[in-house]
Specification:
The protein is elongated, with a radius of gyration of 25 Å. Helix 10 packs antiparallel against helix 11. The longest helix has 16 residues. A three-stranded mixed sheet has the order 3-4-5. A three-stranded mixed sheet has the order 6-7-8. A two-stranded antiparallel ribbon has the order 1-2. The protein is built from eleven helices and eight strands. It is of the alpha/beta class.
Length: 251
Amino acid sequence: MNHSPYLVSDVMTHTVVAVGPEASFKEIAEAMRKWRVSALPVLEGDGRVTGVVSEADLLPKEEYRDSALSVADRDRRPDGIVKAGAVVARDLMTTPAVSVRADATLAEAARAMARRRLKRLPVVDAEGHLTGIVSRGDLLKVFLRPDEDIAEDVQRQVLDPLFPLGGATVHARVDKGVVTLSGWFRNTSLVPLAARMARAVEGVVDVGFRLERPGGAPSGDGQQGRRGAVSPGHEGDGPGDATAPPPAEPR
């Protein structure tokens, strides 16, 4: 992985355990136990994903085993009642499956998981054929990147484009994924933009500042700017939006 933003194809698992629509309840449970997974894609004969069966889909079988269901129970959980009586994947699975393409960004996959409260997503091609699977743990792999790799990306993707002709002497230091931009900005309106761009680099945990006057003297009291002080949605509007670092004195 040597680019940013990273794509689902960079972190997904290519070898996937799946079942067919006629797989029995017990076969599904055995496959989950054997492969230590909590959900399985359900595939049609041509390899297209038609649904996903998860532990949550199997649980109603036990949930309603010994209970006398009231009318209120049936009205409140009609899907659970149906799944409690199901015996094959076709009737147990959740459909349509929430899936993602291999060329989606990790942020897009994370948002899809969060919206639907899912732990993993099947990865499909343009025709809906299964090509892999991506989990929450896969998406978090970017935070294992070495600090020096993150620093190189911040330099290449943030500092070089923002300051191609000088006008600033800014350096990026990364410690445990936290980026500190130090130096001086001639144009302090670029501070919020630099913060936003640095946060977009894969593996960055947070961004802070230590701005100085030209010549190396710390600006203000020389303290590092508060992390996370740039308000979301307002980066880049002007120096008044960046409360983290005090601006350098006008030249």
